[in-house]
Amino acid sequence: xxPQKIRCLIVDDEPLARDVIENFVARIDDxxxxxxxxxxxxxxxxxxxxxxxxxxxxxxxxxxTGIEFLKDLSPAPTVIFTTAYKDHALDAYNxxxxxxLLKPIEFSRFLKSVxxxxxxxxxNNDTIVEVNNNNTESKPYIYLKVVKKMQKIYxxxxxxxxxxxxxxxVKTTTKEIIAHRPISSIISILPTDKFLRVHRSFLIAMDHIxxxxxxxxxxxxxxxxxxxxxxxxxxxxxxxF
Length: 241
What we know:
Helix content is 27%, strand content 33%. It is of the alpha/beta class. Strands 2-1-3-4-5 form a 5-stranded parallel beta sheet. The protein has a 5-stranded antiparallel beta sheet with strand order 11-10-9-13-12. The N and C termini lie far apart (43 Å). It is globular, with a radius of gyration of 19 Å. Helix 3 links the parallel strand 3 (54-57) and strand 4.
């Protein structure tokens, strides 16, 4: 099975800083740049529409700082702070950032930081299998590690996935599964034409929607809230009102 590339987002209000990180990302085959953003507002829009595994995040930005931005993301992708200031390292640690790079950033230091992400990604990949849709299996499925066993879950049976901090709850038509995974890791492998992020803690299967409104979606009796920052995306995809 071919490893997936790590999808990256650069968020920095300085054009030169964005260009430096973009150049570094381009030199590493297993990284894929999704977008460059000059503000937190712009980054929010990207995250609502695109799966991102890793954010290179500046701290001192106008209107919303990188620290404030990350606090508002739950669950959040893996984050590497890129900043000219030393005094936010404790904040970065408390927010579970994987690293803290001081500008000007050398490529050797950048590579060391990215290797931490690769190691984390490898650990995650040990417990999840990509969507399988080959000729020998009529229905696509994934595997999740549940109590030391790999459990098959058919994609079409999933109603919704809920984030429980470092765990996820997968609710299907017949059962409920708890797995030690961040929601961002499973979002990246599910088909985007079938699943929709409607809240920072919820991903829903569009084929199972029974009713919906601007504030709530119901799937087989399960009522899922629509997050304030996801309303426009939900409206665009579902086309209500």
